[in-house]
Amino acid sequence: MAKDDKKEEKKKLAFDYRSSRFFALLFPAVYLIAIAIFSITYSIIPGPEFLILAFLIYAAYNKTTWRFLKDWLPFITVFTSYEIMRGIVGGVITQEVCHLGPYILEMGIFNNQLPSILLQSAIRFPILDYAGAAFYSLHFFAPTIFAYILWRVSPPNYWKYTVAFGICTYTALITFLFYPVAPPWIQDPNVLRILTESVDASLGIPVYRTMFDFLSPNRFAAFPSMHSALPFLISLFAIRIWKKKALPVLIFPIGVWFSAVYLGEHYVVDVLGGIAYALLAFVAVEKLLPLLTKKNGLFRKYLPQLKPTEKQSAKEEEKISDLRSEFKTGEC
């Protein structure tokens, strides 16, 4: 028994390149160094969506580390390349070339008054400012966290979500380039930008102004609203996978839609555009992609399995309960 105990102890202490905590720290460190070099080179501060990936890499480090790295490379590539390209597009667009279509349409629908102004003058309360800021800020974290959950409990749906995420973000990116639109707070001086003018002032710290000034965002990417699109895309996948159990998730996109207009960041038309882009991406993945994989050998070869088998579907509920337990105990 003593010898067996010693052997077990040696196994625990032995260096294993697949499970050693050295690599658990190494991979996030390398990623953060790369982000730091990029940020210093282009004089920007990385958004929280970049930083949270480092924590997810560490959290996922276990016997499936190499699968994690392989599976997450496409999502990370799509996400980071989109953010980089969005910043580049924002650098070449000026207000002079922005289109007034959403502004004119909005004024026509709402009797020459912008919904942002109507909301701010009718129901403006400090609690709504903070609630709106909270919902609006979730956009930076939710897409990556949801991808992680899907990866853990339903890999086929994780791949579908990754493809839909890429379709949604890159079609929006093309729109930003060829149809730039200034947000309400730029187009109309009567619209208050609540995040910087009110929330920051109440906090006494320029949180949002610092983010907007140093994250190098595209100020003229109002249409379509990605803040509206991605929460809706998340809810579409959640409801399709977990049916009625996921209905409370709708609070997330609805809260963001209201906040986007109330805070003066988007027109109602922008929100509707974001919803449309998310819906098109979801339909493309659910309906068109399966047809392409059947007819095209290249798609069958390089795209992962997109339709869960009966065994995988049966295991999803078990994985969900396991994931909940891990989050409660802090194991993941």
Summed up, the helix count is 17
Shape: globular
Q: What is the number of E strands?
A: 0
Order of helices and strands: HHHHHHHHHHHHHHHHH
- Residue share in helices? over 70%
- What gyration radius follows from the Cα positions, in whole Å? 22 Å
Quickly give the CATH architecture of the domain at 99-329. Answer: Up-down Bundle
Structural class: mainly alpha
Beta-strand portion reads under 5%
Task: Report how far apart the termini are.
Answer: 33 Å
Short summary of the structure?
The chain has a domain at 99-329: Vanadium-containing Chloroperoxidase, domain 1, CATH 1.20.144. The protein is 73% helix and 0% strand. The chain contains 17 helices and no strands.
How would you describe the overall organization of this protein?
The chain has 332 residues and is mainly α. The protein has a domain at 99-329: Vanadium-containing Chloroperoxidase, domain 1, CATH 1.20.144. Helices cover 73% and strands 0% of the residues. The chain contains 17 helices and no strands. It has helices at residues 2-13, 21-42, 48-59, 65-92, 101-109, 115-122, 126-137, 142-153, 155-178, 184-187, 194-203, 207-214, 226-242, 251-262, 268-295, 297-302, 310-329. The longest helix has 28 residues, at 65-92. The chain is globular and about 55 Å long.
Tags for this model:
332 residues; 17 helices; 0% strand; globular; Vanadium-containing Chloroperoxidase, domain 1
